[in-house]
Specification:
Residues 1-21 form the signal peptide. It holds the Pfam family Peptidase_Mx1. It comes from Bacteroides acidifaciens. This is Substrate import-associated zinc metallohydrolase lipoprotein. A hairpin with a 3-residue loop joins strand 5 (129-132) and strand 6. Helix 5 crosses helix 8. It is globular, with a radius of gyration of 25 Å. With 292 residues, the chain is an alpha/beta fold. A four-stranded mixed beta sheet has the order 1-2-6-5. A two-stranded antiparallel ribbon has the order 3-4. It has helices at residues 2-22, 40-53, 77-99, 103-108, 152-174, 180-184, 199-203, 216-229, 232-242, 246-264, 268-281; strands spanning 56-58, 112-115, 120-122, 125-127, 129-132, 136-139. It has a single domain (40-284), classed as Collagenase (Catalytic Domain), CATH 3.40.390.
């Protein structure tokens, strides 16, 4: 029996070697060696995102990068140009300014930003944006944006609060915030039930937004994102609505402020001032021409 097996193996390898020897490798590569065709916007993205920050800014909706649970449409070309300029000016450049160089965003920033033209509807709820493992941020509803009227409240609601929210997730996933934050609202988180709570109710329970009541990590990043993208008058108005529960919001902000300073050397108040100043300048930006 062993003898028969050895013969069979010998024949198998002989056939295999014979087949391999008869194959001729094709000298042509399956990969194109030609440089991709790039329009002026593609070249602008190379110079402002890819080369300095290693961020792939995708404005052409790619099926493999899109969530197939939604019916989505691509972002319009002119609005993609405007959004690319705004994301750089209001988000990337804010962190570059406070850190003094590009290294922080190069190291911790998402490696891809993907624009989607339409909103993402899910059983009556709208997804403002998503982040995947700290590598990709997707922004939805780009086609609702009017580049000729860059209203900062609209921009913050749909896009830039989302950018700061998702980036704060990247930071705490890299180095977790103190356990003391967990204890402030223990037992009061609502999970998926946040959709049934108004912002007023959320404030009076010690959460800066209703979405912050989902769970502790969303609570943490909502504190940071809302503090940065709103001015002092807005923040104080929320505290008044919160009433006695403002003490919980204050405690959360104190921990977040200390965490950002001690962990990342970022003064949250200074970052807020930078973002607010840049937000006030958004209306004067040239969001059409690719001349910078």
């Amino acid at each position: 029996m062993k003898y028969i097996k050895y013969i069979a193996l010998a024949l198998f390898f002989a056939c295999g070697m014979s087949s391999c020897s008869e194959d001729e490798l094709d000298e042509r590569s399956i990969f194109s060696a030609e440089a991709p065709q790039r329009n002026e916007f593609d070249k602008w993205l190379l110079n402002n995102y890819v080369y300095p920050y290693n961020i792939d800014f995708k404005y052409r909706m790619e099926d493999k990068e899109s969530d197939h649970d939604y019916n989505l449409t691509p972002a319009q070309f002119d609005k993609s140009i405007a959004m690319a300029k705004l994301v750089k000016f209001l988000w990337i450049d804010s962190y570059t300014e406070i850190m003094g160089d590009r290294e922080f965003i190069c190291k911790y920033g998402p490696k891809m930003i993907h624009l989607i033209g339409s909103p993402a509807y899910d059983e009556g709820q709208i997804t403002l944006g998503t982040a995947e493992g700290g590598l990709k941020v997707t922004l939805y509803n780009i086609n609702a944006f009017d580049p000729s009227n860059p209203d900062i409240e609209f921009l913050n609601y749909w896009y830039f609060k989302t950018m700061h929210h998702e980036f704060a997730h990247i930071l705490h996933q890299t180095i977790e915030f103190p356990r003391e934050f967990y204890e402030i609202s223990t037992g009061n988180y609502t999970g998926a039930g946040w959709v049934n709570i108004s912002d007023t109710e959320a404030l009076q329970r010690g959460f800066i937004t209703n979405y912050a009541s989902t769970e502790v990590h969303e609570d943490f990043v909502e504190i940071i994102a809302n503090y940065i993208t709103h001015d002092a008058a807005w923040w104080e108005a929320q505290r008044k609505v919160a009433g006695s529960a403002a003490a919980y919001i204050d405690a959360k902000l104190d921990i977040a402020t200390t965490y950002m300073k001690e962990t990342w050397n970022i003064d949250l108040q200074q970052l807020r001032e930078i973002v607010q100043r840049r937000s006030s300048q958004a209306a004067s930006l040239d969001l059409i021409n690719l001349n910078d």
